[in-house]
Amino acid sequence: MSAKQKEVIIADDHPILLKGLEDFLKGLGLNIIAAESNGLDTLMKIKRSRPPLAILDLEMPGLTGLEVAKACKEEGIDTKFILLTLHKELYFYHQAKDLNLSGYILKDFALNDLSKAIEIVLDGGTFFSEKIFDEIENSSLNGEETQLTPSEKKILRLIATGLSSKDIANKLFISERTVDKHRSNMISKLNLEKKHNALLIWAQKNRSFIE
What are the UniProt keywords, alphabetically (predicted)? Predict the structure, then answer.
C-alpha cells in the first residue's frame, strides 16, 4: 500500500471517541491527515486533500456524515466513506445505501468490524455491520406487524409539522393519552430509539412514506 493509499480523514464530535479512533487507525498503519469534530471542517478537508478514505460519525454539528458524503459525491470526489453510528434504524442504513457508501458500522461493534471494513473498502468492496442485516431480516419477517395504520400515518404527518401531542389531540378530537399511545406503538414498529424527537426526525425525513 502506497503512502497516499494510507491517508484517511476521520471525524467525530466526541473528543474521546475521536482520539480512540485515531489511535486505533494509527495502530493499523494508516496516516491520519485530519481529525475533525464537525461536518463543515471535515468537508473542507476532504475537498482539499481528497484522501482515499474518510471515516465519519453519522451525527455531527454543521453537517452530518451523510451530508458530507453526499456533497463530496456530487462534486465527483472519489473518497470512499465509512460511517460510524449508534443508530440501528433502517432509514439511516437505506440513506447510506442510496448514496452508495462503502461502509456503515455500528459503534457497538466498531473495534471488531473496523479493521476488516477498511481492508475490504480499500480493495473496492463494501462493508455493513452484520447487526444491520439482523434488523432488516427482523423487519422483513415481521412486515405485517410493522405496517403503520392510517391513523398512525395521520398522526405522523402532524408530528412532522412540529405539533405536540396535546395539539394533535385537539386537532383530531382524541385524548392526549391516545396520541401518546400511538407514539409509543410507532416507535416500536419503526425500531426507533426511545429518545426525544425520534419520531419527529423520522417523520420529517420520510414524508413521502407517510403522505
Answer: DNA-binding, Phosphoprotein
